[in-house]
Write a structure and sequence with these properties.
This protein is α/β, with parallel strands linked by helices. The chain folds into two domains: about 1-115, Glutathione S-transferase Yfyf (Class Pi), Chain A, domain 2 (Up-down Bundle); about 130-280, 3-Layer(aba) Sandwich (Rossmann fold), CATH 3.40.50.11810. It is built from 14 helices and eight strands. The chain has helices at about 15-30, 50-70, 80-90, 115-120, 125-130, 150-155, 165-170, 190-195, 195-210, 220-230, 230-240, 250-260, 265, 275-280; strands at about 1-5, 30-35, 75, 110, 140, 175, 215-220, 245-250. A four-stranded parallel sheet has the order 2-1-3-4. A four-stranded parallel sheet has the order 6-5-7-8, with helices on both faces. The longest helix has 18 residues, at about 50-70. The protein starts with a strand and ends with a helix.
Length: about 280
């Protein structure tokens, strides 16, 4: 299977483990990720909150590259997915983008990586690659705000209770705990601008995951993973409570279940080391 691939800025920077595990898992599943040539920023965060035309123009530039290629476009980043889906909607509606041609066909689909793995690759193909079932690992799956919302843009059938990461995790053998916070906000960039507010938002997610009986949280967004993982020391100090909750990218656990040799390298980059938990369960 061959698809276009928009990695976004984080996958070769702050979320290298997500980028590396994404490419490794795709190869295992016989999926060819054809990275968009000369891709650029999708326009998230600073662009879309300050200049609507700039935000659309940045997304449109990448979409028109994908349009010429004509393959379905896959992205692992929730923010990139949101911006590209929004740009695609606007281009289809005929909203002008200065400096870009108007012959946008849109003969392809834009999908988040987890949805693509679940819906296009399929659970049977994923199950066939599992050599180490992740039994006894209790997790909750966290989607954040942008993978499913707003549903008029994403087309999500159940924006408040998505299941595609849950389904992948069950296929790997984990025990997925139900909880009501899978699409609550993690604070996003407020972790830098309003940290005391964002810390409380993350603490609520960590607390509710524990209340649900989970030992770890699984996500599919670089910012969500960073907020939940990297700031636990500061959150512990503010909340006067010790947090040590492993936060996985779903692709890392796929790689672990597939027996990929680079899993230890990916996990070693986490702020909260998840390897003691996996070693206790004899999974790593």
């Amino acid at each position: 299977m061959e698809v276009s691939f928009y990695p976004g800025c984080s996958l070769d920077g702050t979320s290298r483990e997500y980028g590396e595990s994404t490419r490794a898992v795709a190869r295992t599943l016989d999926v060819t990720l054809k990275e968009l040539p000369d891709w650029s920023c999708c326009g998230t965060s600073s662009a879309h909150i300050t200049d609507d035309k700039l935000a659309l123009g940045l997304a449109a530039r990448n979409l028109e590259i994908a349009d010429r290629i004509g393959l379905d476009l896959i992205t692992p980043c929730a923010a990139c997915y949101s911006r590209l889906k929004t740009g695609d909607r606007d281009l289809r509606a005929g909203i002008s983008t200065d400096g870009f041609k108007d012959e946008y066909k849109g003969d392809y689909n834009i999908k988040h990586l987890a949805g693509f793995f679940r819906e296009d690759v399929g659970e049977a193909a994923i199950a066939a690659r599992v050599v180490k079932p992740l039994k006894d690992l209790n997790v909750v799956c966290y989607y954040g705000c942008l993978i499913t919302r707003p549903p008029k843009v994403t087309g999500a059938a159940d924006p408040d209770n998505p299941e595609f990461i849950d389904d992948i995790m069950r296929t790997l053998g984990t025990t997925v705990k139900p909880w009501s916070f899978k699409t609550d906000c993690c604070g996003a960039s407020h972790i830098l601008t309003l940290p005391r507010v964002a810390y409380r938002m993350v603490a609520k997610l960590l607390d509710m995951a524990a209340e649900a009986g989970a030992e770890a949280i699984v996500c599919g967004c670089p910012m969500c993973q960073s907020n939940l993982d990297s700031w636990q020391p500061q959150i512990s100090e503010q909340m006067e409570k010790s947090y040590q909750v492993p936060i996985f990218f779903f692709t890392e656990l796929m790689g672990l279940a597939f027996g990929h040799p680079d899993v230890n390298k990916w996990l070693s980059r986490h702020a909260v080391d998840p390897r003691p938990l996996l070693q206790r369960l004899e999974l790593c």
